[in-house]
């Protein structure tokens, strides 16, 4: 247990009880049993969904992530930092010593306020940037507002994502196709382009891709193809920016329990067995992703560029 694990907050304490029992990420522990096999009940949340309403609750590290000073004084912008993986990254970055700005949709204000509270509890600054990433103007203003609020920018995490399962291409609405590309791909291009004016040598960019870039499920034709695009973008930009001293990498999660899943990211009937087909036999928790982002953001990964770090419970990747 750590000091952080005993902290209390305004969150739903009873629902977080299971997470309060967890040991920190540096404790010697069996990855098979670090977290239980979850069997999420069939549930429905409208997009974008809230961590506050997720059943069961996920572990974003509030009671388990222990910082070791690896990002002291850094300033990070994390898109979709209100919930799920982005929230876990925001918590970890703050505990590693970074100030963070997070973007999210206005409907996600309760989740964003919770992350702000946890970041501030770590003694760091949290800048909240509500807005819609399908809007090019918001992509640009979010970078400007992050720079203004943090006093500069050293780390960019392009993490926001949209995922809606559809049985067939014939049933894929054009509006969904366009929005999925706008959020997952175009916003990443636009935000990265805007951020380049502010990033100094030593800065890092990390994009959230996915296992589905390689193991593309038949029900995620649009989403899976955006994730392949993110891998390619990471490799191109890694080469383009390396001579400038800016490193670009990606993290590819496997099945992680977040609001993305019960908001039609998966067919409902598949929720109860979510993540059980991985070699570890369980879904991942958002905080299990955080150390990968911390590693790629910190100077210790100085020779790692254009890499996709897979965090997926053991599924083989190319
Ligand atoms: P999440 O729902 O917690 O996070 C996704 C975030 O995207 C939302 O919080 C929201 O703020 C943001 N977003 C979506 N549409 C937006 C829009 N129009 N404008 C602004 N923001 C918008 O779910 P998550 O699983 O933590 O997702 C984070 C990233 O991880 C995504 O890129 C997702 O594709 C990727 N990913 C998730 C999994 C998984 O199993 N959960 C697996 C592989 C990759
Ligand atoms: Mg969210």
Automatic annotation (TrEMBL):
Listed GO MF terms: oxidoreductase activity, acting on CH-OH group of donors
Keyword Transmembrane helix tagged: no
Database matches in SUPFAM superfamilies: NAD(P)-binding Rossmann-fold domains
Compositional bias ranges of the Polar residues kind: 1-11
PROSITE patterns, A to Z: ADH_SHORT
Keywords: Oxidoreductase
Pfam families reported for this sequence: adh_short_C2
Family membership: Belongs to the short-chain dehydrogenases/reductases (SDR) family.
PANTHER family: NADPH-DEPENDENT ALDEHYDE REDUCTASE 1, CHLOROPLASTIC, NADPH-DEPENDENT ALDEHYDE REDUCTASE-LIKE PROTEIN, CHLOROPLASTIC-RELATED
Name the record gives this protein: Dehydrogenase
Species per Swiss-Prot/TrEMBL record: Agrococcus baldri
Taxonomy of the source species: Bacteria, Bacillati, Actinomycetota, Actinomycetes, Micrococcales
């Amino acid at each position: 247990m750590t000091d952080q694990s005993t902290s209390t907050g305004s969150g739903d304490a009873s629902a977080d009880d299971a997470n309060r029992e967890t040991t920190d990420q540096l404790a010697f522990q069996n990855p098979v049993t670090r977290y239980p096999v979850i069997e999420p009940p069939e549930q429905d949340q409208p997009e974008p969904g809230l961590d506050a309403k997720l059943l069961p609750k996920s572990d974003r590290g509030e009671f388990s992530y222990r910082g070791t000073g690896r990002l002291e004084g850094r300033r990070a912008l994390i898109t979709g930092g209100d919930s799920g993986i982005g929230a876990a990254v925001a918590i970890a970055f703050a505990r590693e010593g970074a100030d963070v700005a997070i973007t999210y949709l206005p409907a996600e204000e309760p989740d964003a306020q919770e992350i702000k509270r946890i970041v501030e509890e770590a003694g760091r600054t949290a800048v909240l940037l509500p807005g819609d990433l399908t809007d090019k103007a918001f992509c640009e203003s979010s970078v400007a507002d992050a720079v203004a609020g943090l006093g500069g920018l050293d780390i960019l995490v392009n993490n926001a994502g949209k995922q809606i399962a559809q049985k067939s291409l014939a049933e894929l609405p054009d509006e969904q196709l366009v929005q999925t590309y706008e959020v997952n791909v175009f916003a990443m291009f636009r935000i990265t382009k805007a951020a380049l004016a502010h990033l100094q040598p030593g800065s890092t960019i990390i994009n959230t891709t996915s296992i589905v870039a390689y193991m593309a499920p038949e029900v995620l034709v649009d989403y899976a193809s955006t994730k392949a695009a993110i891998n390619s973008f990471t490799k191109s930009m890694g080469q383009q920016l390396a001579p400038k001293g800016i490193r670009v990498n990606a993290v590819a999660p496997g099945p992680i329990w977040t609001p993305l899943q019960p908001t039609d990211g998966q067919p409902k009937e598949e929720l109860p067995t979510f993540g059980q087909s991985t070699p570890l036999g369980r879904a991942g928790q958002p905080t299990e992703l955080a150390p990968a982002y911390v590693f790629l953001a910190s100077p210790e990964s100085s020779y790692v560029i254009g890499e996709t770090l897979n965090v997926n419970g053991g599924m083989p990747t190319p």
